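<discrete_fold_record>
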Amino acid sequence: MKTSDYFKSKRPHRRNEPNQFSLKQSAKLAGIGEALLILWIETERFKPSIELQGAENILGWNRYILTDHDVKRLRKIVEGNTKIVAEHVKGTNWKVAELAEAWGVSSDTIRDLFKLESGIVKIERPGTRKKRAYTTFTVPEAVADRVKRRLS
């Protein structure tokens, strides 16, 4: 018996019932891979609305049925993960990525603008034969304001 036949035989269809999707269909609708969805379920980051009880050994991961509401929740999780840069907190130094997003330019442009600017906080790690050199810096708000006024 196919999995879909099992679901049809156990769950009568009602007109008001929301659409139901398999893990594979739900993952595709949310724009993620099926393996990632399984990982989220396994780590309890996401809990589907419907789980067929007593079917763990027979159906494995296919014991989960996701509804339209579940897919919407998945999309929110996915959209939340795509935002990498956090909002700037007033009174703190700007990170390069935060300043780039706020000014609408690339991180490389920000690095070039502030490379020789006085007042920035630089942390330099010299390179070795095996590793390249890194320079991390943050920009105090006063310095960012000064450069923005100069560029305007």
Observations:
- Confidence is low (pLDDT under 50) at residues 6-10.
